Amino acid sequence: MQAITQLINDDSFPPSEQALDYPNGLLAVGGDLSPARLMAAYRQGIFPWYEEPQPVLWWTPDPRSVLFPDRLHISRSLRKTLRKDRFRLAVDQNFEAVMRNCAQLRGDGLGTWIGDDMLAAYCDLHHIGHAHSIEVYNPAGELVGGLYGIAIGRAYFGESMFSEETDASKVGLVALVSILRRGGFGIIDCQVESDHLNSLGAENISRLDFEQRLGETIDVAHDPEIWRLPATCGELL
After folding, report:
1. What is the mean pLDDT of residues 53-70?
2. Residue 222 has pLDDT above 80, yes or no
3. CA separation for the pair 13, 150 (Å, rounded)
4. What is the signed CA dihedral for 91, 178, 85, 171, rounded to 10 degrees?
5. Contact, 123 vs 98, CB < 8 A?
6. Which residue in 43, 130, 133, 157 has the most C-beta neighbors within 10 A?
7. Residue 82 banded pLDDT, cuts 50, 70, 90
8. Class of domain 65-236 (CATH, top level)
């Protein structure tokens, strides 16, 4: 049985080919969620996923679910929602609230992987300009959808999304893609395949292909002024 690398202090991550086949992509355990550690992880296509208070688990699955910004699929029903123009949009105005909504207990009662340590760590990344959120509000001004993730160079690493009203998270993704296209981003990391993301155009690629694409985008700076949106979703069309 293959041993998992135990990270101590400032240990580097092992090569991705050492990740387990089962559970798919488990690479290392331990370490912390400091900004330096997180940024080093994402630059190598590695992300944390665990339930507190357990030690941090680090993953790099194969295959990898990704969405190329120019391949976003907007269904006719979603276009209709956008044209109705009933949602208001914002960027980076309520990052912590988006995370807290994403962290709500799942319906199966098994809890959430977004614990207090994860919340604090990503809020730190937000405060130093690496983590971004899209917020979707209904006509009453209530936060009803959104998503958050990490932007490094021209790669965006999606972390989680939530929706309290029909199509709210999908509108948030359309808004994100609008920003990323404007900024010349080459790839959105979706981590693990899901039917929801597949319906929006996500696809699986090999880990090697993913890492090669990261190498082409991660060190290409983007203009920080791209992180803005029209006030209403109708203007995204």
Report:
1. 96
2. yes
3. 19
4. -80
5. no
6. 133
7. very high
8. alpha beta
